[in-house]
Amino acid sequence: MSRRAAIVLAVLAYAAAGFSQSGPAFRGSPDHPAIAYSTTRFADAVSILNGRLEAGAARLTYDPDSGYLQSVLQALGVPKESQIAVFSPTSLQAEKIHPQNPRVVFFNDSVAVGWVRGGMIEVAAQDPRLGPVFYQLDQRPDVRPQFRRADRDCLECHRSWETLAVPGLFVLTTFPAATKNGYATGGVTDQRTPLPGRWAGWYVTGRPGANRHMGNKLVPTRADTSAPEVLDSLAGRFDLKGYPTPYSDIVALMVFEHQAHMTNLLTYINWESRVAEADRRGNATVREAARDLVDYMLFVDEAPLAGQIEGTSGFTQMFSAEGPRDARGRSLRQLDLQRRLMRYPCSFMIYSQAFDALPAAAKEAVYRRMWEILSGENQEPPYNRLSLDDRRAIVEILRETKKGLPDYFELVRN
Length: 414
Fold this sequence. Notes:
The chain contains ten helices and nine strands. The chain has 414 residues and is α+β, with helices and mostly antiparallel strands. The longest helix has 30 residues, at 250-279.
């Protein structure tokens, strides 16, 4: 068995172990006529950039240290401050990844870019209707470089039970194999995972305060509950040649975790709704998908923080400044980082093209579920974690900043 095949099997094995096949997952075909994932002409950021490159309307500049990386980030509007670094060898380019040569990921609301020194660039770009599309870009000088579709390679891991069986994203916490020929172990993490169980196999820069996590431990083990080494930057940990920044920002990592599963939930409800409409069957599955999406969107199962967290890359300030804001200057992108991730617990992904592109039935199910919780109609656990002030603020912000919000989103009184 090749090392690549072993890594793929390892990822699938522990992803499936952490997510029951009886849970929510798309059980239809990606090539159902209502979806046609393999044959549809996509409208994601990379396919648009490819067209501009082919027409000569855009150019990518090759750098001897990082290849096309910095030029790709600029062309796709992906900030370098979002850089997060993983050294566990669990991707398609596993043989190149280790603590002295980590893979870095950069992201904005709709694109994730992966780069490892000495390897190719990998990109997951969100098509508004159909979810993430996966691309690769070879790192060699070319007059007109082109990204190529990489579904066959990437979907071996990026369409699994952990992505709800749709093309998706995830963050892994990874422990080394116990034996020479064994598989890595671990699992997928997101905002619901207590911090002490997150980020084995990752570098983490910033100040976690009283919070513990598994990052920065070169040989992490489940039994090691000691406090992690606190790193303001990655300087001195490995040769930074080619890396755009010396950071793997803790706040960026937390935001990316949230965004990854939120992306999967949006794709899942989109696919389920399209197939239900095409097959003329009921919307029970869509309503269940809306329940899961809204619970996650409103952070009702979020693991609490144990005190102040601070990033050091500038990501916190950059992310929070983007808005949109209401007349009082409030935004769903404002971060809390003391008790929880967001100041106002409602996902900024509600402004995404993926949300706006949801079929009408799915969007209405999501809005109805949101209002059931935000209005105070349902205050049973865990929904009582949302205080009256939180619910009122979220609705007030949405009323001023979210186009297409239903009229029944009124001022919250109880």
